[in-house]
Structure formats: structure tokens, C-alpha cells
Structure of VanZ-like domain-containing protein:
Amino acid sequence: MKIKYIPALLWALCILVATNNYNFTALFMSDIDFHFRLFPDLSDLFIISDIQLGSKLYVFQKTGHALSFGILYLLLNRALTEPRVTLMLCSLFALFTEFLQLFFWRSGRLVDALIDIAGIYAAYRLGESVKAHGGMIPAFFTALQKIFTALEGEKPH
């Protein structure tokens, strides 16, 4: 195995531990434990009634979903160097983790997989933008220039 895959594999392992731990908030207290069930209800993947956009913890978790899978994309893309293959592999991993959560008494949801994939896609677009501008610094200054141009003529409130 090539060493360039190690960061992506370690990050994927961290995602698996975080998503399959018996309780998300227990992770903050370094409490890691897994509770397994052999026959989960697969229809749980389609539940949308537990979406709580008014909950700070819920929004924090979903932001974490997007960021963690975006980071996975960036790490894996450094190893694979083929952005579309990386995009597909990370998206499949996102779907797999949501399915796997059902076996660990967690709430695997396709909505969460879509949030994960949104984070992956954002990282993909970021990578493509950086590549198109010739590196991180030129991409950053181009983005700043676009922001300033968009705000030109705006008056402070």
C-alpha cells in the first residue's frame, strides 16, 4: 500500500467511529462504544420527520457531516489525483456509512448522505477552482476580487 493513501484511510476510519458510536454527544467525552443489531429497519433510511433545522446541535452535526466528507474528498484526491473517481468513491462511502449506521442503533438517513455528498461536491468544486486559477493563493485573490466587485457601491448600514 502506498503511503499517500494513509491520511484518507485514517480520516475514513475516524468518520466510521464517529458515525457508528452509540451516541454522538458521548464522543465529546471520549466515550466510544458500539451497540450492534443484526436486523435493522431499512425503512429508517427514508425518515425525514426528524429534521430539526431549529436545533443548534442538529445544524452542528450536519455541518460536521459536510465538512468531514469534504475533508475526506480532499485527502483521497491527493492520493488518487482523478477528481471524478474520488467524487464517486467518497459519495459511495457516504451512502455506505448511512446504511451501516442502521446496524449500530444509529439513525442512518439518506438526507444525511445527501448532506455528506454536498460537502464532497463543495470540496470537488473548490479543488477544481484552485486548479483552474493555478494554485490556492491565486484562487483566493480571485475570489476576493469577485467579492469586492459584488459589494462595490454597497453602503454600510
